[in-house]
Amino acid sequence: MTPRSSPSAVLDVSAVLVYLKREPGYEQVRDAIAAGAAISTTNLAEVYARIVASGRPLDAVAARLLALGLQPEPFTEEDARTSASLYPQTQPLGLSLGDRACLALGRRLGLPVLTADRAWLDASPDIRVLLVR
Q: Fewer Cβ atoms within 10 A, N terminus or C terminus of the chain?
């Protein structure tokens, strides 16, 4: 499948793992990937690390995700600033740098962010967060 030129949503690590593990909510993530979902390269690195840790073949799984339509987006200087600005409100929620990178990409692209982490609902009022389960 050829990815669309512009993504329709941003995925965080938990959403991709829901898809890979076929957990409840994976259909929503599958549909987002098929529509050309974006992912920050910082989050993609974490997904890849989890694949390696699970013993699955990284190259095969990575190639499949990209072939299905997952669109890696670079972590930009603008994203770094946004991530830093989100720190005060997200630190009490336990969000990591990777989490903030995902939210920053969602803000930059003006797209909803899909996650399996309920804490994200309180992360920022101007970033639309959708739970996949």
A: N
Q: How far apart (Å, rounded) are the C-alpha atoms in residues 59 and 80? A: 28
Name the pTM for this structure: 0.92
Cα–Cα–Cα angle for 70, 75, 78, rounded to 5 degrees: 130
Q: Which of 19, 106, 13, 133 is nearest to 123 (CA)?
A: 106
Percentage of the chain modeled with pLDDT above 70: 96
- pLDDT of 5 higher than 90: no
Report yes or no: 76 and 86 within 8 Å, Cβ to Cβ: no
CB neighbour burial string for 51-86, b if at least 16 within 10 angstroms, e if fewer: beeeeeeeeebbeebeeebbbebebeeebeebbeeb
In a domain, 37, yes or no: yes
